[in-house]
């Protein structure tokens, strides 16, 4: 499995921890920045790069990390083909994958203890899409809208 990961300054430390944790589980992690801590950087370029990489790499997942995760989710969702979900507890992490086939998790580094954030990403990465017809139908409706604008 491959996971693309990105963060701004607010998520920089957690990105390193999550990336190391996933690598330790045998996951290939591709880092899309930030490459160094810069308290003045902006999240959109990193999240957009992560989202583009996920779309270009079928079967992969993405994780974007910021202070709250809200802006990062919005940015990632601007990439056509990304279904980014803000994960804030185990249920939202699981249901994002199970019901929505989300391919990017967004998480707020300032919202969770490190152990909890890592657990949420584990749940997201470890959950498969249900494949149920009703979920497929709903995703198709969103994809059709996305394609026509």
From TrEMBL:
It is an enzyme of class 5 (isomerase). Keywords: Isomerase. Its EC number is 5.3.1.6. It comes from the Bacteria. It catalyses: aldehydo-D-ribose 5-phosphate = D-ribulose 5-phosphate. InterPro entries: Rib-5-P_Isoase_Actino (IPR011860), RpiB_LacA_LacB (IPR003500), RpiB_LacA_LacB_sf (IPR036569). Pfam families: LacAB_rpiB. The keyword Isomerase applies. Pathway: Carbohydrate degradation; pentose phosphate pathway; D-ribose 5-phosphate from D-ribulose 5-phosphate (non-oxidative stage): step 1/1. One of its GO terms (molecular function) is ribose-5-phosphate isomerase activity. Homodimer. Belongs to the LacAB/RpiB family. This is Ribose-5-phosphate isomerase B. It comes from Schaalia naturae. The lineage of its organism: Bacteria, Bacillati, Actinomycetota, Actinomycetes, Actinomycetales.
């Amino acid at each position: 499995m491959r996971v693309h990961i990105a963060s701004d300054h607010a998520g920089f430390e957690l990105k390193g921890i999550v990336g190391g944790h996933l690598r330790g589980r045998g996951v290939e992690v591709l880092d899309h920045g930030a490459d160094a801590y810069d308290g003045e950087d902006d999240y959109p370029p990193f999240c957009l790069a992560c989202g583009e990489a996920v779309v270009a790499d079928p079967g992969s997942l993405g994780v974007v990390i910021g202070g709250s995760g809200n802006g990062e989710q919005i940015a990632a969702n601007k990439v056509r083909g990304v279904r980014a979900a803000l994960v804030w507890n185990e249920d939202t992490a699981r249901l994002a994958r199970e019901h929505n086939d989300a391919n990017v998790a967004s998480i707020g580094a300032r919202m969770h203890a490190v152990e909890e954030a890592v657990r949420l990403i584990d749940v997201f990465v470890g959950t498969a899409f249900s494949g149920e017809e009703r979920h497929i139908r709903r995703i198709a409706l969103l994809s059709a809208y996305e394609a026509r604008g």
